[in-house]
């Protein structure tokens, strides 16, 4: 076991270390960042999420642990910010910049102090400045002059400035700097003059020497361009769904008390499957048992055993028929595919006999997929390196595809139902047209790693999106043009290092793709576009614990009133919780027709299996998701913008304080007046004289 450690050596005696501290077990080296003034040592490892902070001192114990932090993203690199750039008013003693996959994250180390408005000399001793102590020629000649120390006290620091050590110093008395206000046209006429701007920031103001810093020439590239580029041109295109957020729905919608889940399903299987009404989950019990749970009955499951489907063989993959919500296809390791029928009210008793059994494969089956348009058409892949297409109504194999030389990781039907794409362990992506030929129509390079891969059609069926691994076992996404696979991927992006294969889900209405793997805690979200940069990153969904599976429901399960573009089921160790992916919008009372175009009627077949096998092609009809009581946001009445300031007439007619005081006094006098009304006690009746004692 390789353990990482920190050792402190005396440069005058290198035969042994003064002290050593053992950190953890990892083969990766650590990046050391040491601050000489404070004695803080920060250690960061590439591809890791942890940061170690130690204090190094000459006395024993020489290396003392200060803090250990865990970051949200993995570290690809780390750098230390100069001490002159620290925020001394906040007692910031060190700042580290973490380079992640998509951002640079500052990490500050602060010392808690009550009086933060005061400068703490004990925390911030004088440190080396930014003025060189000697030139290169002097150093070569043997000069060892040290850099002059400067104070970090804001009250003792000079005005900020910029001095390049590569330029000779100028005598302030002999040469005057040009004016700071020089037009671009004047710079062209007088090339010796330039804008004397100061390059500094409030948090990193540097002490300037008494000499004046020379100005930069006009041709140095610092002059402003006549045309101002927009922020989008600078940062690149961004997705309209970049602020998408994943929300776990209330606990009343969860299914809890799950027990005996099977965690040994192959990597080609999603782990479980669901349709709009029910869920099918493989169990750990012998005989390939599958539990059926109703989405309409959330809550705690009973402790007593539930009715299950007895498949008779270990399960390799399973999926629901999209056009028959009661039919479930289960592929077993015994080379058979069994189709089971569940009652509309759910599974009330043990199911022992399947409705149909498909036989033909000679080895274990990898995966199965129903046709997206034709009813009763099922495709399957097996260890025998073949893909077979079945008519489940008759139970016969109708078509067979050849050409694979190694294990088939995944297969996917095209949106128009004409083609079938596969990705295999031999590192090739293939596209077949099953009704035309048994050999691939297109063949091209795919992921190099042999740990697993998935493929799906995107961008209207013109491109293929493949998730897999590279040669270093890093998970990656690649986009291929379906009609030119031999040219290789159009774009490839790396995500992270993890052993599980990313399972893709693509929403055809929004072009948003979701990626996650079994055992992950994160769902990656990207908008896929057919032109560069091809992948537009959106907000990811993070969970507190790893999920055993993540399955997306059909589009009709989304709540459009909450601007929900996707809904998924997250399988945990003992529960199932729904997760809604929503886009923040202000006018939620209107139907967001820009996010919800007309969607396909996926639950109705476009044509039967016999017509498709004979060469017929047909598409789904489409329908609107707009509720009857909602108005499209494109037809919403335009609000008149509110004026930020009152008209000038209001300010001109505003009364002075004396006028307001006189009006107030007049109103009070008018209300009270000089009343001669009788007092209340005058209306009281007295008593007779005889009644007095």
Automatic annotation (TrEMBL):
Instruction: State any GO BP term from the record.
Output: actin cytoskeleton organization
Query: Residue ranges of region Disordered?
Result: 163-233, 626-659, 671-693
SMART domains for this protein: DUF1899, DUF1900, WD40
Domain (DUF1899): residue spans on this chain: 235-299
Q: Does the keyword Protease apply?
A: no
Pfam hit, one: WD40_4
Q: Name one GO molecular function term.
A: actin binding
**Superkingdom of source:** Eukaryota
Q: Which family does it belong to?
A: Belongs to the WD repeat coronin family.
Q: This chain belongs to which protein, by name?
A: Coronin
Q: Which organism is it from?
A: Thamnophis sirtalis
């Amino acid at each position: 076991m390789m353990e990482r450690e920190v050792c402190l050596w005396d440069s005058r005696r290198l035969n042994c270390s003064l002290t050593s501290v053992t950190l953890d077990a990892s083969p990766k080296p650590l990046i050391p960042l040491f601050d000489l003034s404070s004695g803080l040592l920060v250690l960061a490892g590439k591809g890791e999420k942890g940061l170690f902070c130690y204090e190094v001192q000459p006395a024993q114990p020489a290396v003392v642990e200060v803090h250990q932090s865990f970051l949200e993203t993995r570290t690809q690199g780390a750098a230390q910010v100069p001490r002159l750039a620290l925020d001394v008013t906040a007692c910031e003693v060190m700042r580290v910049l973490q380079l992640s996959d998509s951002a640079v994250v500052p990490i500050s180390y602060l010392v808690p102090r009550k009086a933060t408005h005061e400068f703490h000399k004990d925390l911030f001793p004088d440190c080396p400045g930014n003025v060189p102590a000697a030139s290169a020629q002097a150093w070569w000649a043997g000069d060892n002059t040290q850099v002059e120390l400067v104070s970090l006290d804001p009250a003792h620091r000079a005005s900020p400035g910029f001095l390049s050590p590569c330029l000779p110093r100028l005598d302030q008395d002999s040469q005057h700097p040009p004016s700071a206000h020089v037009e671009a046209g004047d710079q062209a006429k007088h090339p010796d003059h330039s804008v004397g701007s100061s390059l500094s920031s409030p948090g990193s103001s540097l002490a300037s020497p008494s000499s004046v810093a020379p100005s930069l020439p006009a041709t140095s590239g610092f002059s402003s361009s006549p045309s101002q580029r927009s922020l989008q041109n600078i940062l690149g295109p961004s997705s309209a769904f970049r602020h998408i957020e994943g929300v776990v729905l209330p606990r009343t919608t969860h299914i809890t008390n799950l027990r005996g889940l099977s965690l040994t399903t192959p990597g080609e299987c999603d782990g479980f499957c669901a349709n709009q009404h029910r869920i099918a989950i493989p169990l750990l019990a012998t005989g390939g048992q599958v539990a059926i749970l109703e989405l309409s009955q959330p809550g705690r499951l009973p402790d007593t055993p539930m009715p299950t489907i007895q498949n008779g063989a270990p399960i390799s993959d399973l999926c629901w028929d999209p056009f028959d919500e009661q039919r479930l296809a289960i592929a077993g390791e015994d080379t058979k595919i069994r189709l089971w029928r569940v009652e509309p009210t759910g599974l009330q008793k043990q199911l022992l006999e399947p409705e149909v059994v498909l036989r033909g494969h000679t080895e274990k089956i990898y995966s199965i997929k129903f046709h997206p348009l034709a009813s009763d058409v099922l495709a399957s892949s097996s260890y025998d390196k073949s893909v077979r297409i079945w008519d489940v109504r008759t139970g016969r194999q109708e078509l067979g595809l050849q050409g694979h030389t190694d294990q088939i990781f995944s297969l996917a039907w095209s949106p128009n139902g004409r083609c079938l794409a596969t990705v295999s362990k031999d590192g090739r992506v293939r596209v077949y047209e099953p009704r035309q030929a048994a050999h691939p129509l297109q063949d091209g390079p795919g992921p190099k790693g042999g740990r697993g891969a998935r493929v799906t059609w995107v961008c209207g069926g013109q491109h293929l999106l493949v998730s897999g691994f590279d040669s270093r076992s890093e998970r990656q996404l690649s986009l291929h043009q379906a009609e030119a696979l031999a040219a290789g991927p159009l774009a490839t992006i790396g995500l992270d290092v993890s052993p599980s294969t990313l399972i893709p889900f693509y929403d055809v209405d929004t072009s948003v793709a979701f990626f996650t793997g079994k055992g992950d805690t994160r769902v990656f979200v990207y908008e896929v576009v057919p032109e560069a940069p091809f992948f537009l990153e959106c907000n990811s969904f993070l969970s507190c614990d790893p999920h055993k599976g993540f399955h997306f429901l059909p589009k009709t399960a989304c709540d459009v009133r909450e601007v929900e573009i996707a809904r998924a089921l997250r399988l945990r160790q003992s529960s199932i919780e729904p997760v809604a992916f929503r886009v923040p919008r202000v006018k939620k009372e209107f139907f967001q027709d820009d996010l919800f175009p007309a969607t396909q009627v996926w639950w109705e077949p476009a044509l039967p299996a016999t017509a498709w096998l004979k060469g017929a092609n047909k598409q789904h009809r489409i329908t609107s998701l707009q509720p009857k009581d909602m108005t499209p946001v494109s037809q919403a009445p335009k609000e008149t913008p509110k004026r930020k300031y009152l008209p000038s007439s209001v300010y001109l007619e505003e009364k002075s304080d004396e006028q307001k005081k006189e009006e107030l006094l007049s109103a009070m006098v008018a209300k009270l007046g000089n009343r001669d009304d009788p007092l209340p006690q005058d209306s009281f009746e007295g008593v007779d004289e005889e009644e007095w004692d």
